[in-house]
Write a structure and sequence with these properties.
Number of helices: 21
Shape: extended
Strand content: 5-15%
Largest sheet: 5 strands, antiparallel
Number of strands: 9
Length: 538
């Protein structure tokens, strides 16, 4: 809370503080402190706060930066600057971790093992080593205790998300902090499991085995566990700038196209893609061969999502705005509160804005941003994998443009989208779909008599139940409860006045009781009038 207040998020900190006070008392709920982030934008202050809160919160911010469908784009761009600023792990702890995982002394497992890491991240770090078979390898070692630390901090995040959902975002249906945290916890559990990354890498090895433009590092499964991943050491060039590539005899334009085709093939043909294809996750080998080295962040793209993306791309390229709405309806993404006419009009306006431009001049990043804004404003919630795909395409376009300023991701996309659409019309695929429809229809026809018998039997036995779900009646129930309580209270006051009026003419104690009744009735009446005036409803 102190960090939130420090960076100007008092409304969130106050909501958290009230809950903490209830549960733990004043000692653990900090008071207001001086803010030090004056003059900075709100997204920038959020990034600074996450950086100060530590590695788990930084990872959470990095995950949010991949979800422009649920947070505004100015936050996405700012959170993309989050970096893991972590020191390398103590070499002795790394040595002990490797020996524990691989069941033996380090000098008996490897001929050599450099305890100075090649790279260090918040979850793991990479070391160069030589196996007993003489193979030079890169050994990725998970940081000791990182799983326990992330689990503990994820529990804190879940608690905070529940509080924020019940307070700050109580009436905002477009943002669900609890869902965000659930996705984060799931992503982190996969990223900390190096066995999962090994399986991903083995799949990439199979999928690109026949592609001479891509080299997937070999995996040495003998030296792998859930905390250790050992792969072929890649001695290549980082694609940091075109000048460096040319110095090593590489073709910048060809590398840009091969990088894009590598990602597009994953999405359109394989349905299993790398979600973060930035330059730091690649090396380049002689012959302009691409060598990806990190396989922890991947996602699966179902056929339905691929078809949705095909339709959206072809709607833009072929100037068919109506195709956008039809694609969203087919994917069942249109909500009850979505104004379909407004959605169609805004889609047409978006497509018309770029129709005069040649494909290579179409700003893909801007089109994606405006499309996601269109979805968000019309209550269309695309699948998470679909959004990750758009984010990955934006990343690879930025990577390719850094090497070839004339590169156009839409030009590269179009042939893949065309081929994918034509595949839907292949006779063999149509025959399979027709066979599946006939089987489903036959199953339905066979089940229908039994289902009707069950319904009729329950109807005859008086056991047929119809469940009706009402909506928006809670406020009416509360209003009726409040009104009935006020009427009851008013009747009590009236009865007290009548009784007191009968007692006041009497002598002695009865007269005193009558006067006391008047006083109580006056206080109750005044309280009733004040409560009605405060509610603003006479």
């Amino acid at each position: 809370m102190a960090v939130l207040i420090k960076y100007g998020f008092e409304e969130i900190a106050d909501a958290l503080r009230s809950k903490v006070l209830i549960r733990f008392g004043e000692k653990v709920a900090p008071m207001r402190i001086k803010r030090i982030a004056e003059g900075r934008t709100r997204p920038e202050r959020l990034r600074l706060a996450l950086e100060e809160l530590g590695p788990t919160f930084i990872k959470f911010g990095q995950l949010l930066s991949t979800r422009p469908d649920i947070i505004p784009l100015d936050y996405v761009h700012e959170l993309e600057h989050l970096q893991d600023q972590v020191r390398p792990e103590d070499p002795e702890r790394i040595k002990a971790e490797v020996e524990r995982e691989l069941n033996g002394p380090l000098d008996q497992i490897f001929v050599s093992f450099d305890l100075t890491p090649l790279a260090a991240g918040s979850i793991a770090q990479v070391h160069r080593a030589t196996t007993r078979e003489g193979e030079v390898v890169a050994v990725k070692v998970r940081r000791p205790d990182i799983v326990r630390i992330i689990e503990a901090e994820s529990e804190v995040l879940e608690e905070l998300a529940a509080i924020l959902k019940a307070t700050v975002f109580e009436h905002d249906e477009t943002i669900d902090p609890q869902q965000m945290v659930r996705e984060f916890v799931e992503a982190m559990s996969k990223e900390t499991d190096l066995a999962n990354e090994r399986r991903n890498q083995l799949r990439f090895l199979r999928d690109f085995a026949a592609d001479p433009t891509v080299h997937i590092p070999r995996v040495y499964e003998k030296y792998c566990t859930a905390a250790i991943l050992t792969m072929e050491y890649i001695d290549g060039i980082k694609p940091s700038s075109c000048e460096i590539l040319r110095e090593h005899g590489l073709d910048c334009e060809l590398v840009a196209n091969r990088g894009a085709n590598f990602v597009l093939r994953q999405m359109f043909e394989i349905g299993f893609f790398h979600t973060d294809p930035h330059p730091g996750n690649f090396f380049l080998l002689p012959g302009n061969v691409l060598a990806p080295i990190d396989f922890g962040q991947v996602a699966r793209l179902p056929a339905a999502d691929r078809r949705l993306f095909n339709d959206l791309i072809l709607a833009i390229v072929d100037d068919e705005p109506g195709r956008v709405v039809r694609a969203l309806e087919r994917r069942d993404l249109i909500q009850d509160k979505t104004d379909v006419a407004k959605l169609a009009a805004e889609a047409e306006q978006l497509i018309d804005a770029y129709q005069h431009l040649p494909l290579k001049s179409m700003p893909f990043g801007m089109i994606v941003s405006q499309t996601l804004d269109l979805f968000r404003s019309n209550y269309v919630r695309p699948p998470a994998q679909f959004t990750l795909m758009l984010k990955a395409l934006g990343t690879v376009e930025s990577f390719a443009r850094s090497l070839d300023p004339d590169f156009s991701i839409i030009e590269s996309l179009r042939p893949f989208a065309r081929r994918s659409s034509l595949q839907d019309l292949e006779p063999a695929r149509l025959l399979r779909q027709m066979r599946r429809v006939m089987q489903d229809t036959g199953d339905l026809a066979m089940r229908l008599p039994d289902d009707l018998n069950v319904i009729l039997r329950k109807f005859r036995q008086g056991k047929l139940q119809v469940h009706i779900q009402h909506e928006h009646l809670e406020s009416l129930i509360k209003t009726l409860d409040r009104s009935s309580n006020r009427i009851s209270f008013a009747l009590i006051i009236a009865a007290l006045l009548v009784a007191s009026s009968l007692l006041v003419p009497q002598q002695g104690t009865l007269q005193s009781i009558g006067i006391l009744g008047y006083v109580i009735a006056a206080i109750g009446g005044a309280w009733l009038i004040v409560s009605i005036l405060r509610s603003g409803k006479l």
